[in-house]
Amino acid sequence: MKTYLDCIPCFMQQTLRAGRLATKDEEKIKQLLDQTGDLIKHLSMEKTPAEVGEVIYAKIREVTGINDPYKEIKKRSIAEAKEMIPELKTILDKSENRLITAIRMAIAGNIIDFGMSKKFNLTEDVTRILAQDFAYFDFKAFEKHLKKAETILYIADNAGESVFDRILIEEMSKKTYYAVREVPVINDVIFEDAISSGLEDVSEIISSGSHAPGTILSTCSPEFNHLFKEADLIISKGQGNYEGLSDEKRSIFFMLKAKCPVIACDLGVKENDIVLKGINIKNYKNQKDHVKT
User: Fold this and answer.
1) Span 205-221, pLDDT tens digits
2) Could you tell me which of 20, 215, 10, 39 has the C-alpha nearest to residue 115?
3) CATH number for the 7-64 domain, one of 1.10.3470, 2.60.40, 1.10.8, 3.30.1490?
4) Taking the CB of residue 222, how many other CB atoms lie within 10 A of it?
5) Nearest Cα to 254, choosing from 219, 281, 218, 279?
6) N or C: which end of the chain has fewer CB within 10 A?
């Protein structure tokens, strides 16, 4: 996915939010905004938004001297998500199709995104998504791929969201590699966040090697690229990973909520739609099944 003009003000808003979390020094924040503007001015629009984000967040770390501006926010979002687990497991136990419900829960967790300017109420939004129709719902293809799979590469997105990912990984009950970012970027999950969310109990946590708010294979580690090639099933969570992987040639299942008009347009859905979309899926036609939980 390329960068669109509408992405540019979003980059600047993200820079301002991260800058204000990192420092109260207005002059330093102004310096950061100026330098980010200069970076954007010279970046190719053919790059993915995730590639642009990698450069911007490196600049944020450089100018502010703060490695993880979202650290405390991530801790709070993980704690809040954990509080919902007993209720979610009750819903899961009562559902007609546990796998579909677990997928809904994993996608519902994708609402936890501090890279976006929109506010959210975790409990209300999760409840809403559990009853929402999908814009794309390639469940039959996903289920068939899952049944055949021995190994899963699960590419993580946001920190609090990882708590919900655990529910789906438990339900799939397959050997799963849970790929996190190499360094802090926005509120994306890194190794220590995944540990805090309990992912080590249900998966093997690995680093993708990525310094970007998404997955860019050319900058990921050789170990991750090997898994990307060899894993039987790939699940990609969130918008940033979609930005970096949507043009890849191998089969991938994207799970996300379309939280911005650019992503929605690229997917061919409406803003706020939820998506389970497979690409490069042999023998399975994309479909819009509206299966209730």
Assistant:
1) 999 999 999 999 999 99
2) 10
3) 1.10.8
4) 8
5) 279
6) C
Place of tokens 């007993």: 86
Quote the CA–CA distance of 218 and 222 in Å, as a whole number: 9
Residue 255 token pair: 């799970």
Q: Does domain 71-279 have CATH number 3.40.50.10880?
A: yes
| Pairing mode, strands 274-279 and 252-257 | antiparallel
pLDDT digits (tens, 9 = 90+) for 146-172: 999 999 999 999 999 999 999 999 999
Give kind and range of the element (H or E) at residue 237.
strand 233-237
Distance of alpha carbon 190 from the chain centroid? 12
Domain boundaries, the chain: 7-64, 71-279
* pLDDT at residue 285 greater than cutoff 70: no
